Each structure stands twice: as C-alpha cells, then as structure tokens.
Amino acid sequence: MTPKILVVGAGAVGGYFGARLAAAGHDVTFLVRPRRQAQLSATGLCLVSPLGDATLAPRMITTDQIAHPYDIVILSVKAYSLAAAMADMAPAIGPDTRILPLLNGMQHLEVLASRFGREAVMGGTCFIVSSLDAEGRIHQVGVTPRLVFGPLVAEQDANAMADALRAPGFETVPSSRIVQDMWNKWSLLASLGTLCCLMRASVGEVARLPGGTDFVHATINECTTVAAAAGYPLAPDTINGITRRLTQPDSTLTSSMFRDLSQGAPVEAQQIIGDLVARARAHGVATPILALTDLNLRAYELRRDNR
User: Fold this and answer.
1) Catalytic residues
2) How far apart are the C-alpha atoms of 144 and 128, rounded to whole Å?
3) Using 50, 70 and 90 to split pLDDT, how confident is the model at 99?
4) Distances (CA, A) of 161 to 7, 8, 9
5) How far apart are CA 99 and CA 65, in angstroms?
6) Furthest CA-CA distance within the chain
C-alpha cells in the first residue's frame, strides 16, 4: 500500500521536496493556507533548479478539509510558525502517523512530542539552498539537496520510510545517528547566522576583513563547544568542513535568518541562537559571541514588534 504523505507548507523547502516526491509518483498532498492555495491553483507549483525545472498541479487541502490520518507528515515551516502549524495538522495525525520535522535547531522536538507523543516524532534535517520569488516559484541552487531522517525511539524505522521518501532531485539518507546530524547542522546554522547577523555581511565580506577569520573561528568554537557539552561533539572533519565553508573570501553565502532580518521579517533567532545560548548556560559554557548575537536579535525583534 502506497504511504500517504502530507507536506505541511509548500514553501521553499517543503515545496521543493514535496514537488519532487509528487513528480516521482508518490501520494503527496500539501497542507496550505488559503492564500498559498489560491496562488498555486493559478500558477502551479513551479521549481526552477539546475537539477531540472518542473511545474505541477499539486494536490492541496486546507486544515478544514483533512478527512483522514496520513502515514507520513513532513513538517516544513519556520520555527516561529510551529504552534499554528501543529493546530492545522492535528486532524491528520493518527496512531500510526510518523511526523518528520525539517525545522532548524532542536527545540521543536520536545514541543511536537508533548503534543503528539514521542513515538510519532522522528528526527530530521535537510540540506538545501532554496528560496521563493515574488511569484511563488521555488528556486533551488547549489549542490544536490539532501533529506536526512532517523529514529528517536525504538518503535521507529527509518529504513522502512526510505522508499516512500525517495525521488530524483534529492538524496534520501536514513540515519542511525540523526540527533548528531541535527547538532552538526545546528552548529553550522548558528555559526553562519551569528557571522551574518552580527556583522550584517556575507561570509566572503567578513573573511576579507582584518580579524574576520579569527572571529569566525571563535564563533564556530563556541557552537561546537556547546554541542560537545550536550553530548554530541562534532567530528574534526565536520568542524573543518564548516570552517572552510565559512572562511571563503570569495563566498557570497548568507544565512536565511540574515536575509529575513534584512527584509524586516520575523527571524528564527530564539530557535537557532537563543536556545543554544540557554543550553550553554545550563552546561556552564561561556559563549560571549553567541550571547551578544542573541541580545542583538532580541533587540531587533523588540523594535519590529513595536513598529
């Protein structure tokens, strides 16, 4: 029996993976808000990608149209939209549903488990560079995206899900160490977010400045020290890979959090930076750069809320 997949959110991440799965013949439905539903009904779900462009007419529902539980729910929303997304998708969660969250950080795992039960929530992360344009098209650039997922409790079987989540256009990676994978990505995102948001610059712009690479090294060290204190030390090769990526003088890379900040939009500050600072304090780890970034972003959010 073909698993029924519900993708919560048809944005730059969920829209990409969901579209590739649907195009490969999987049973995929997108849970969307009315505005996005109207947009996609008019234009189709459009992918612009070096791996192949595509336009499809997606199967879509709104929360009031959910008629049955789904086998797999791929949750791909910004962390600050998690509460609303959980309320929307609740009717789709049955006793055998597996929720695969692709949110940043780690905080969402406890939030989801408290609402839907630990056996329902798997670990997951993804690696993709994508964005939505003004017309709602998804632009993917860079290397082939990866979807990584694995069990958090013994009752879950990532390998059994692999065929249901396999399609051309991205790599499907079942993992037996998904929490470590998530900490690895969190360390990268927090380092990149700190670099861009605190300096208001790209990776290359910071790297070209006197003292820029020293700042990057210190930031990465704070993030990886917190991960190690939490019991998930990054391998030396992983740290070296992050360092190389964030010290390229010709890189135009910026974090999505910095891009949101530059547009005056909400940011995932608490989930990516604030929660890491809180965990550092709980373990007695000093993180002056991360703490300064957290303060900077909280001031931004305060001013934004008071506009």
Assistant:
1) 185
2) 8
3) very high
4) 15, 18, 20
5) 19
6) 60
